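Final report, results section. Input specification for complex C-07:
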Amino acid sequence: MSRTALRICPLCEATCGLTLTIDEGRVTGARGDRDDVFSKGFICPKGAAFGALDSDPDRLRTPLVRDGGELREATWEEAFEAVAAGIRPVVERYGPHAVGLVLGNPNVHTMAGALYPPVLLAGLGTRSLFTASTVDQMPKHVSSGLLFGDANAIPVPDLDRTGHLLLIGANPWSPTAVCAPPPTSPAGSRPSGHAVAPSP
Ligand code: SF4
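Structure output:
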């Protein structure tokens, strides 16, 4: 039996409202929730792909542990044991900074993802931390710091009153387009003039 569920997309900080179609416990469709007060129906291709994501046969549903060169399904206990067995020799031989952590975007959208990494970092004593921010966002912080004196003073385009929008190195249809999350998104507002996004 099919039903509709209203959810918030957990994949990035734009937090778009989703209207999901669920058939027998499986997500079979996803579209923007036009009544969402924030995103007003806007979603990006990632949000629209929730149905395909849910039924993807390659989606990880259990930990995998490499055993004799092959990945095999394992319990969480086995997985944590494998992690501990792998990390300890590295720390003992090369020091804590040899262990690098890469935190993906969805970590900031779950309670566990926000709470546990600081504990893990403190336990490891490593300074080798990488995130979505360190990979693709630092130039924005550096330029904002140099221009405005504050690395977090990131200007948000005033799309409603923009006559000509020139996007360099940005895709207006990607998630949280050009640091302008909904409702200053393609669905919430549009530049009144031209929008130009040269492709490299
Ligand atoms: S911009 Fe895309 S990934 Fe981000 S919350 Fe909205 S639908 Fe999800």
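The longest helix spans residues 76-94. The longest strand covers residues 2-8. This concludes the modelling results for the funded period.
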